[in-house]
Amino acid sequence: MKSWIAVLLFLTLPFMATAQDKPAQNRPWPQEIKLANNQTVEMYQPQVESLNQNDIKARAAFKLTRDGKDYYGSCKIEAKAAINKESDLVELSRIRIKNLQAPTANITNNDLQTEIENKLDGKTVTVSYRTLVDNLSASTSSSAQQPKLHNAPPDFVFVSQPSILIMISGEPRWTESAGAKEVKRVVNSSALFLHQEDSKDFYLWALGKWFQAADFKGPWQVSKSGPTSKFVMIKDKLVKDKKIDPLEGKGPDGKPLYQPGVTPKIIVATKPTELLQSTGEPKYSAVDGTALLYMSNSPNSIFIDSKDQNYYTLVSGRWFRSASLQGTWSYVSGKQLPKDFAKIPVKSPVAEVLVSVPGTPQAKEAVVVSQIPQTAQVKRDLKPKDIACDGTVKWQSIPGTNLKFAQNCNSPLIEVTTESFYLVQDGVWFTATSAKGPWQVALAVPDEIYKIPASSPLYYVTYVHVYGSTSDMVTVGYTPGYHGTFVSADGTIVYGTGYNYDSYTSGSQWYPAPSTYGFGVGYGWGYEAGFFMGFSMGSLMYPWGWGYCCYGPTFVNVNINNTYTNWGRHTVISGPGGHGITTNTIGQTKFIRGNDSSSIYATHDGQVYRRTDSGWQKNIGPGSWENVDRKNTADLDRMHGSRNINRDVARPPTGRDFSGRPQLQGGGFRAGGGFHGGGFRR
What we know:
Blueprint: E1 8-11, E2 31-34, E3 40-43, E4 47-52, E5 55-66, E6 69-84, E7 89-101, H1 111-120, E8 124-128, H2 129-137, E9 155-159, E10 163-167, E11 174-177, E12 180-186, E13 192-196, E14 202-206, E15 209-213, E16 221-222, H3 229-240, E17 265-269, E18 273-277, E19 284-286, E20 292-295, E21 301-305, E22 310-315, E23 318-322, E24 330-332, H4 361-370, E25 374-379, E26 395-397, E27 404-406, E28 413-417, E29 420-425, E30 428-432, E31 440-441, E32 464-469, E33 473-478, E34 485-487, E35 493-495, E36 504-505, E37 510-511, E38 522-526, E39 530-534, E40 572-573, E41 581-586, E42 589-594, E43 600-602, E44 608-612, E45 615-621, E46 624-627, H5 634-641, E47 654-656, E48 662-663
Parallel strand pairs: 9-18, 10-17
Antiparallel strand pairs: 1-8, 2-3, 3-5, 4-5, 5-6, 6-7, 7-8, 11-12, 12-13, 13-14, 14-15, 15-16, 19-20, 20-21, 21-22, 22-23, 23-24, 25-33, 25-40, 26-27, 27-28, 28-29, 29-30, 30-31, 32-33, 34-35, 36-37, 38-39, 41-42, 43-44, 44-45, 45-46, 47-48
């Protein structure tokens, strides 16, 4: 994402407009505002100083032209933000101008401030999401929510051959198959395990073929004859209905993950487990400038510290250490990592782990990203999708609160009181006076809900908020915690709370709880692309972890993918947009860049600077600028970097080498934490 173009545009379009609705036009900053008495104000691109939920504070430089002379000044801006990460745009509305000052113009009252604010009334300005990240990353303070996470290590399995890890949520629960009661199916797994009562054999469907074993944990071998036609009919129906993951063994590009003729080893786990693997015997390469070695023929992030001779691996954003690859792994706080991890060069093939090394610029930026919400406006008459419960609702208390949640329903349904109920679907809160409805979009959420602890499987709902409402619309938003990205005590982002929650499983239903391990989750950072996240999961996750019906692998990018699009374009208004932008499409992802930018900046102290080919200058009066010593321009250079229109747009992972390592154009990138490992995992 470091390559996204930072641009701030002045728009007069209604909020309903989207980037795809309007053609790009050349309306770059600065923007001219005509005032009374033949005065004009040229407003330059603001710099965002803070974001609290959807309240933004920024500062901007301006030029006042009066009586043929130019006077420079600065002001602060307060506004409401509508954030669309998918389009790289942040729209600011309800703009208020504060602390306007232009010392050389002898302004002694706030008439100019009021007049500018009136001109902006009802209008919007738009800053790119990349600008927002860059500006906030430069801030020295952070108010990131740090939940009490659990860091007990999962089981680790290291193999040097192609393998697939298949997860079952606890011990297998067998249920009857539709149309063939004598054929039992494991209900608490997204993979298809079948077993007939009068047979000793178990069957698994994966990679377009049947595997067979005398025990469901294996060892599994390709079945020579295959099961009966009943098994095939059951499989075909479940695949058609997308109720199982067929484990096709293909990457996001649809290409096979295995070489022709290669049959991977099947590994089945019933408790939190992570697969570490290499292509053949492990090979190691040195990390330049450090005492670290990394396993160069592994899709996982596996290191050896030559100083202490320990192995280190990164899984779900957490570090683990062991004396051997087959040994017992223990959790290591990021602050206790060997110092050489922070010295990994940004162009190293293993630079992605810098996101998980405390104190690095990459870790700080990732934390900033995790605090920025994706927002949308929804119609007040929006209704939730079908809420399914397995029989009568079974209520379970949430420790540390007075709340209860429905453990046997497919949506997070919460009882606040016997006459007050709330639920979340796709980033929108709904409320009702009965658990059966009727439901309506919530205009506010009780504070008690935000006290739900990380030890509860419903903790993720505390990252969904209601920001305001009008007579027909409600502004809502969620931060990446809704999809399982949290800030650790180390000041780095991690995936999942680490708790091994109990999933609800009955004779016919499985409502899986969020899961931290077993799916090769990883965060990445590339020199050209910045921070993003991806993992091998089905495309139908709800909202993170197992998913109800996981069908095929996909990358999920917490910075781009917009949950609100699940409601449909005409139901939810989720995108700012309008003039002055160019839309580029890479794959199926659209990226936005500005057509132009400006070189006038306002700093925290209200001074105005401009960037020239020969360096920085400070305004000291009408038409007067003085040069700034290069030793004092670091902050100015950072501000300019956020507007650098020569940076390319972000690129999602493309391509794959033999080891299964995703690659990025323009920079060495390796799969962090083992996501999309050497074989597709489920």
